[in-house]
Amino acid sequence: MSINTGMLLIWISFASCFGALIYGTWHYFSMNPKIDIASRRFELISLATSTLAAMLLMYYLLDVKAHYLYVFRFSCETFPTLYKISAFWAGQEGSLFIWGWFTLVCVALLRVRTESRTYEIVRIAGLSVAAIFLLLLVIRSPFALIYGIDHQGHLLSTNTDIFATPYLIESHHAQGMNPLLRNPWMVIHPPIVFFGYAASAIPFGAAAAYLLIGDRRWIEIAEPWSRITWLFLTLGIGIGGFWAYEVLGWGAWYWGWDPVETSSLIPWVVLTAYLHTQ
Predict the structure, then answer these.
(1) pTM, to two decimals
(2) What string of pLDDT tens digits covers the 278 residues of the chain?
(3) Does 15 map to a domain?
(4) 157 part of a folded domain
């Protein structure tokens, strides 16, 4: 009996992140150091298991394990290595995965010299965002396993059965990602943008803390992370512009105002205005 290790790691990561969120909220109200230690341990377990899951998914994409639905749809035996790597974030599941993982990394990097209630609210906000993404991955896993084909030729897959027997598919039968995404910019553009999105959870949490408890020290947390977010969104928008010139499907010579473009532009404009007021 085989076990879907990747799916199991995602479940553990979500459960641990949710545990860190619950204990973190409890610590906010009690300020009990033992509860804080438990919350941080759950946080580290979540980060560690999600990191292992990410490494495992990358291995499957590089080795073209086509019995995994995500690999079947976005990787291909004939792809160069860089395109196999970029297949990680070519689909919705992989994009949510890297966004949630980056959020956990940002929460882990968030440290201040003194304990404060503002810091706890920021941490709770970051863990909440990460938990939502991990929950979505539990519902729609990048490790969904193909276990058969129906009479119409449709692939049958499962998001929940970690003991399902895989329907072995030769790697050369994998479809590979959309031809529009087979571009060198695909390797660096999405991770840069997603890290910018993930980092924005920190100033969001700091602003929420100010609204809730009126602690003016929130800006000590928000400003450096806002600069990091602005930097990565700026790089993402710039690289996306170069990519658009090369691929006609993105509009090339004009701004299309589609969600792909505006989802980065609108927070960038807001952050630019905020940073100019400091």
Answers:
(1) 0.92
(2) 689 999 999 999 999 999 999 999 998 888 888 998 999 999 999 999 999 999 999 999 999 999 999 999 999 999 999 999 999 999 999 999 999 999 999 998 886 554 677 888 888 999 999 999 999 998 999 999 999 988 887 888 998 889 988 888 888 888 999 888 898 999 999 999 999 999 999 999 888 888 888 878 788 888 999 999 999 999 998 888 888 777 765 555 555 666 777 888 889 999 999 999 87
(3) yes
(4) no
3-state SS, residue 149: strand
> Are the beta carbons of 20 and 40 closer than 8 angstroms?
yes
| Amino acid present at 49 | T
Residue 103 sits in which domain range?
5-146+166-276
Q: Please, which residues have CB within 8 angstroms of residue 59's CB and are 6 or more apart in sequence?
A: none
* Number of domains into which the chain is organized: 1
Scanning the structure block, which residue is given the tokens 């949490």?
Answer: 205
Asked if the structure places residue 152 within a domain, the reply is no
Residue 158 lies in a domain: no
